[in-house]
Amino acid sequence: MTETKRRFVDLTPLKVSPAFARLWIGAGLSGIGAQMTIMAVGLQIFDITHNTFMVGLVGGIALIPMLFAGPWGGMLADSQDRRTVILGAITVSFISTIGLVALSITDAGLEADGSSVAVWPFYVFTTISAMAYIISGAARMAVYPRILKLEDVPKANALSGISMGIQYTVGPALAGVLVATSGFTVTFVVDMILMLAGFFGVFTLPKIPPLHDAVAKGWDGIKQGLAFLRSAPNIRTSFLFDIIAMGLGRPYAVLPAVAATVIGGGPTTVGILTAAAAVGTFSTSLLSGPVARINRFGLAIGRAITVYGAFIALFGVVVLAGMLGAFGKVGNTWSEVSVLGLGLATLCFVGMGASDEVSAIFRSTILMTAAPDEMRGRLQGVFYSVVAGGPRLGDLFTGLMAVSIALWAPALIGGLGIMVLITVLLRTNQRFRNYDNRTPEL
Q1: Is residue 86 within 8 Å of residue 137, measured between CB atoms?
Q2: CA–CA separation, 332 vs 419, rounded Å?
Q3: For the CA atoms of 419, 421, 426, 427, what is the dihedral angle to 10 degrees?
Q4: pLDDT tens digit string along 198-213?
Q5: To 10 degrees, what angle do helices 18-49 and 184-203 make?
Q6: 3-state class of 231 per DSSP?
Q7: Residues contacting residue 351 through CB under 8 Å, at least 6 positions apart
Q8: pLDDT of residue 4
Q9: Which of 49, 28, 131 is nearest to 392 (CA)?
Q10: Which alpha helices (H) appear in 148-229, and where do they start and end?
């Protein structure tokens, strides 16, 4: 099928590179487990504290360490064998999950006496795991241009979108079911089992040492990468756009409370809504064939994020309607869910996932094709700090807005803010607006 006629995702990277195929499959399976754990941690903290702000702190506390982990992990990816860096990072994540298993077992034992474990260890383990995720992600993405032709990189990014869609669909949905039926401990153990697939995908990679001896190590290497970023305005702008979208458009921290008091359905509803965003991501990636025909990446990113903000704001309207009684009496069990409220919220999350993935494909491609190999790890490190740190900032924003105003405020105010800011930035930054992928520019 020619590029002009293609509608569905291009599987070429999986066919031409067995190493990429194994890495992709392993990352997908281990990612399902990781998303299960993220969902389960939020649900367990809410179960212990009944406080949305405490759920939002999972992201807020991890933010600063994650921002540091990105540049540091990128420096390691540029100066060391990238395969070794990934293996070390996922080992740390595996150990952190063991800690969560121990915490959940202890909490189950205390529950019989009417008490609970302290929540601060959850923050410690999730922060460590988040830092490891950023380091492994930066190194993994920097691997793609080394095991694929550059023209196959956008196709690999679309395939990564499918993988992420599956992770965010299956992981939260499975977590919701497992937490409701088997408890938190079983959910964390399943994550550990799935993580073994990630080990296999990385372990079978060839060695990927640095191509250049001039890459500085330690703090000097980090400063070298940050100095290079100052000369890359298009990459910096793509980071800024993502920070705005994630910092103002992350309503996930309010989902346990919304599912308990506004829409109903409890943990199962939380899993369905989180999975709905992943369905949007998956669908966009599956139908990503036309990506090859789009060259105005800057304009595409701006428009996609504006649409994303619109869906966020619509979810805020749904929550507000529910708080005003539009969905009737609801509760924290599946039998007390509002079908209308859940249906409207699900549509919002599908739209969020779809529009976000359009932006992600183009932003990732700009970074991989415009940056030289000796800088890819460090730029990917900053990218992962933005991608992973932005949502944590968004979780903190959501928690603060929900506590200080109401559950509807984070999504409605944040979504409108995204639309306004992106529109202004797109009109005032002509260089980024006119970015053409046929002539990549930093």
Answers
A1: no
A2: 33
A3: 100
A4: 898 898 888 888 877 6
A5: 160
A6: coil
A7: 280, 307, 308, 310, 311, 314
A8: 47
A9: 131
A10: 153-181, 184-203, 218-229
Burial call 311-336: b when 16+ CB within 10 Å, e when fewer: bbbbbbebbbbbeeeebeebebebeb
Q: What are phi and psi of 423, to 5 degrees?
A: -60, -45
Per DSSP, the three-state class of 5 is: coil
Q: For tokens 């709905």, name the residue.
A: 276
Specify the long-range contacts of residues 206-210, CB closer than 8 Å, at least 24 apart.
206/19, 206/83, 206/147, 207/81, 207/83, 208/81, 208/82, 208/83, 208/143, 208/146, 208/147, 209/80, 209/81, 209/82, 210/78, 210/79, 210/80, 210/81, 210/374
pLDDT at residue 7 in the model = 63
Does pTM surpass 0.85? no
Strand partners, 296: 436
Q: How many degrees, rounded to 5, is the angle at CA 172 between CA 170 and CA 175?
A: 100
- Which helix H or strand E contains 81, and what residues bound it? none
Tell the burial category of 212 from Cβ atoms under 10 Å away from its Cβ (0-12, 13-18, 19+).
exposed
Extract long-range pairs of 325-330: CB within 8 Å, 24+ residues apart: 327/262, 327/263, 327/264, 330/261, 330/262, 330/263, 330/264, 330/265
Residue type (1 letter), 294 = I
- For 53, the enclosing helix (H) or strand (E) is helix 52-79
Distances from the Cα of 225 to the Cα of 47, 101, 220, angstroms: 42, 37, 9
**Mean pLDDT, the chain, whole residue set:** 85
Q: Which amino acid is at 307?
A: V
